[in-house]
Amino acid sequence: MASSAPEGSASEKSKPRDGFSSRAAFIIACIGSAVGMGNIWLFPYRVAEFGGAAFLIPYFIFVALLGFSGVLGEMAFGRAMESGPVGAFAKACKMRGGRIGERIGRAIGFLPMLGSLALAIGYSVVVGWFLKYLASSASGELAGVVDTGAYFGALAVDFGSVSWHFIGLALTFAVMLFGVSRGIERLNKVMTPLFFVLFVVLLVRVATLPGAGAGYEYLFIPRWEALADPTTWIFALGQAFFSLSLAGSGTLVYGSYLKKDVDVVSSARTVAVFDTIAALLAAMVIIPAVFAFGFSAASGPPLMFITLPAVFQQMPFGSFVAVVFFFAVLCAAITSLVNLFETPIEALQSQFGLSRGVAVGIVAAIAAFVGVFIESTSSVGAWMDVISIFVIPLGALLAAIMFFWVCPKGFARSQVELGHGKPIGRWFEVLTKYVFVGITALVYVLGIFFGGIG
C-alpha cells in the first residue's frame, strides 16, 4: 500500500538500531540541536533592530508555520525511513522509480549530509572560542583584559585556537562514541536543561542592574511602523527558519532514531515553543546588560567575545556571571554540534556498514583537518556564510520535496499520524506541500539576494 513504510533488507532488520529511549529524551535532544548561536548572538539583535516587540509578531507566525510543517515533516520522514538523508532520499525515490530512483535519491541525499558536516566544521571553531573564554573567565584572566577586542583578535586568527578547537572536538566525539541512547541522549538530558537554568539565573542578575530598564524598553516596546517594512518580515522568516534547524539533516536523523508510537505533532510543537523561549531568554539577558553599560548591541562574534566580556568587567560579581554565561552558551553550542556531526556519522554507518567507532573517527579526522585552516574570523565567517546561504536551505527544500511530493500520495500524512491518536486536519497537505515548500524556496532565494537572512 502507498501509505506503508518502506521495508529494509534482511541484514538491516537483523541489526538493532540505536535510538532514543523515550519521547522526552527525543524532544530534549531536538531542543538542544535547535538552541544555538542563532538564538543567542543573532535573535536579540534582530528583535532590537527590527521593531522590538513588533518583530515578534512575524517571528511567531513563521515559527508556527515552520514548526507544524518543516520540523514535523523532518521528524516523520526520518522515522518513516529509519535513516538519515542519504538513506531516506534513496528510499523515497525507490518508492517512485525503483532501483534507478534509489540511486538518484541516494546521490541527492549526500548534499544535506555534506552541508551538515561543513556547518559542524565551522561551528567547532566557535566552540573552541567558547572553551577558551570559559577557561579565561574561571581563571580570572578575562576580568583583567584591558582591550577585549585585541584579546579576541589574537585568538581568532589563522591557527590561533588550535588547542581549544581540538579540545572541543575531542569532547564532542568522546560523547558521540557512546552512540545515541548512551551518548547523545545523556548529554542533552544534562546540558539542555542546564542551559535554561543558567540563563534564568542570568536573567535575574541582569534585571537588578541600574539602567537595564532602557534595554527592556528598546527590546519590547513595539515600533509598529516596522511591520510595514518588508525587511522585517524577511529577517523574521530567516530567523525562524534557521533557529528551528531546518536543513534536511539533523532533525531528520534524530527522527530516524524515534519510536513509531511517538506523537511527532506534539513533539514538533514542544521543540518550537522551547526554542522560542530560549531565544527570548537570551534577548532578555543580553540587550538589557549591554544597555546598562552603554555598549552597542551588535550581533555575532563581536557581541559574544568583545562587547559582553567588557560588560562583565564592569558588572558587580562580573567574573561569576561570565563563567555562568560562557558555560551556558557552551551547553547550547555542544548540543547543536553533536546534532550536526551525527548526520555524516549515521551515513557512514548505514550506507557503508562501518562501526560507530570507525565512523566517528573518520568524521573527527575530517573535521580536525579542514577546521584547523579556517580558525580566523574572516575564514570561518565566509565558510559559514556559504554553507548557510547555499546549502542548508537547499537541503531543507530537497527533504520537503522528497517527503511531501516524491513519496506516494498519503504517505506523509500516514507517517505523521502515527502515534498522534487521531487524524490530522485537511490543512496538512496545503501547509506542507505548498506553503512550506514555497517558503523554503523563498528562503533560499532571499538568502542569496540579501547575502544571508538567518
What would your notes on this structure say?
The chain crosses the membrane at residues 24-44, 50-72, 104-131, 151-178, 190-213, 233-258, 270-297, 317-341, 353-374, 386-407, 434-453. It comes from Raoultibacter massiliensis. It holds the Pfam family SNF. Keywords: Membrane, Transmembrane, Transmembrane helix, Transport. Helices cover 77% and strands 0% of the residues. It has 454 residues and is an all-alpha fold. Helix 5 (85-139) packs antiparallel against helix 16 (377-406), helix 6 crosses helix 13 and helix 8 packs antiparallel against helix 14. It has 18 helices and no strands. The protein has helices spanning 10-14, 23-34, 37-49, 53-81, 85-139, 148-155, 162-176, 180-207, 212-220, 230-243, 250-256, 264-292, 301-314, 318-352, 356-371, 377-406, 411-417, 427-450.
Feature tags:
18 helices; transport; 0% strand; membrane; 454 residues; transmembrane; mainly alpha
Write the layout of secondary structure elements.
Blueprint: H1 10-14, H2 23-34, H3 37-49, H4 53-81, H5 85-139, H6 148-155, H7 162-176, H8 180-207, H9 212-220, H10 230-243, H11 250-256, H12 264-292, H13 301-314, H14 318-352, H15 356-371, H16 377-406, H17 411-417, H18 427-450
